[in-house]
Amino acid sequence: MGVPILPTISTAFIVISAILVAIGWGLIIKGKKEAHKKVMLAAGVSALTFFIIYASRTIFIGNTSFGGPEELKIYYTFFLFFHILLATVGAVFGIVSIVTGLREKYRTHNRLGPITSIIWFFTAITGVIVYLLLYVIYEGGETTSVIKAIFGF
Predict the structure, then answer these.
(1) Pairing mode of beta strands 63-64, 143-144
(2) Do 108 and 23 touch, CB atoms closer than 8 A?
(3) What are the strands, taking DSSP E only, across the chain?
(4) 17, 73, 80, 102: which could form a disulfide with 46 (CB 3.0–4.6 Å)?
């Protein structure tokens, strides 16, 4: 079995967003505000693209359960919970960071931006690990769509 295309594409977008955040961080350190703004907006678009693909796949195709050894499932579940928590906090902080930057609320933006970036790096890293555990290291388990789970079709 090969790796499924949508999870591979969505994971690529989250990695791209993290790379762009790193580039943006480097640009602002060098004082290149306009380039920083463009790269960070591109990072936000990349993260949003990930979310759209992920949410669409979850609703219409479904989530894939952990297919690895049963004795590792509890560790995977805990790790997945940690990743989801990081992703949620990172997304909220990311939105606030983008909005404060665009509204030129630099005091808040400058304090929140580095924290947001670090959270996002960990989100991307843990997201790649989840992807590897679900689709590369182990064969994925059952996939059930939200629509099928709720409505039975």
Answers:
(1) antiparallel
(2) no
(3) 63-64, 143-144
(4) 17
Within its chain, how far is the Cα of 62 from the centroid? 17
**Cβ of 102: how many Cβ atoms within 10 Å?**
12
> Which pair of structure tokens corresponds to residue 7?
């999870």
With tokens 């939200």, the residue in question is 146
Q: What is the mean pLDDT of residues 5-34?
A: 96
List residues bridging with 64 in a β-sheet.
143
Cβ neighbors of 142 (< 8 A, separation 6 or more) are 64, 65
Rounded to an integer, the average pLDDT of 113-124 is 96
pTM (2 decimals)?
Answer: 0.88
Q: Is 58 exposed, middle or buried (0-12, 13-18, 19+ CB in 10 A)?
A: middle
pLDDT digits (tens, 9 = 90+) for 61-109: 888 888 899 999 999 999 999 999 999 999 999 999 999 999 999 999 9
Q: What angle do CA 1, 134, 17 make, to 5 degrees?
A: 110
